[in-house]
Amino acid sequence: MDDVPGSMGTSAGFALRLGQTIFSSAALLFMSLGGQFYSYTSFCFLVTIMGLVIPWSFTLALLDGYSVLITHPVRQKGILFIIIIGDWVLLTLTLAAASSAAAVVDILLRADGSVCPPKICSRYLLSTIFAFLSWFLSMASSLFNLWLLPSL
Amino acid sequence: MDDVPGSMGTSAGFALRLGQTIFSSAALLFMSLGGQFYSYTSFCFLVTIMGLVIPWSFTLALLDGYSVLITHPVRQKGILFIIIIGDWVLLTLTLAAASSAAAVVDILLRADGSVCPPKICSRYLLSTIFAFLSWFLSMASSLFNLWLLPSL
Description:
The structure is a homodimer.
Chain A: H1 11-32, H2 41-69, H3 77-110, H4 118-148
Helix pairs in contact in A: 1-2, 1-4, 2-3, 3-4
């Protein structure tokens, strides 16, 4: 079994999962603090999906951290397959949520300040950027896991 | 070499590619006819991506049709790999474009009729639905091709 860096049970994999958890939490935090995100369907969608991604990434980060500590990666083909499927589903949803939030932020930024005060608007923008970063890291860890799959 | 239905060089694969071409053309047509899509960044993005998806899907549909006619699928690992990569890139872009267009359509439908007359608005909506259908078919053919890859 060759060791693909960034795949499940490696320290790079742990770092990727931790990054996903942090970025999704930041996206959720910036979206829900202060603003009135529930006025826009896309922002509600983003908050829902981030609420799904955080526990998923956190659990897998714990699993990876445990694997690194005991220096024996927990790797079974069935488990890896389920994780890859789950990753792809959340990946798709995260991308959809992030792009729809970006479209709404674009419209809000072009409108005059009465619709969305600059302070709130920049929070929405930051939240969208963090959601895209979380998507990017998820993409990386899911590709590394897919690469690992045939060798198991 | 086992024959995965829906993968490259099969008649189901040809049908999937043809469906993608038709749905992307419909999305492009409904978006660009009559409306003022260039006022919204997301709609411009959708038109650009559909303009990329149509030639890609059409070329692969021709290749599949040719393979079905000569009853000998053109299958080489390198070519299949390039097609899978290209499919995933366009898949991601199509999903991003379709979801951002959906977010804008949602905002336009909630606004009063002055922003977007019902006739134009329903065209935008139809275009978004066709873009999602095209994404769905691309997803199917890319998964079938990925399934075929290890057996080559």
